Amino acid sequence: MLPEPLLISLAVICVIVGAVGTVVPVLPGVPLCWAGLLALKFVPSVKDNVSWTVIVLLGIITIGVTILDNILPLWGTRKMGGNKKVVWGATVGLLIGFFLGPWGIIFGPFAGALVSGLIVGNKIKPAVKHASGAFFGYIAGLIIKLITVGLIVFFFVMTLV
Prior knowledge:
Blueprint: H1 4-21, H2 29-40, H3 52-79, H4 84-98, H5 102-119, H6 124-160
Helix pairs in contact: 1-2, 2-3, 2-6, 3-4, 3-6, 4-5, 5-6
């Protein structure tokens, strides 16, 4: 068993990296946050502050949110008439947008989907429509992830207090 301070430090690092991963596309934010909360369950001095029921329910929510986060952009794009290439464009736009700061993260998926739609031969109006679907899918996924991570962080803090 790891020493208590090391286990708490590991849990805090997981939660911090997970919170950052909520907006950084490469990191699995919600699962990392949940892993941090799970790690606290094994800290002797605070393990009774969070129940297994909370851990399991948040684990199920984490799985659901992770799946939804991958489906929503595709669903939004398809709903607006786009295809997988437009979704890939949105993903590339998000990755590039990450290096441009918060506005790049917000508008990168739209720009990437738009450029991708134009490259595959769509006219401007359908390309904007498809890009809007990808954009709203990413935003919906982001909102769901932020809410879930907020919930996990709430239980994490309450467990430590």
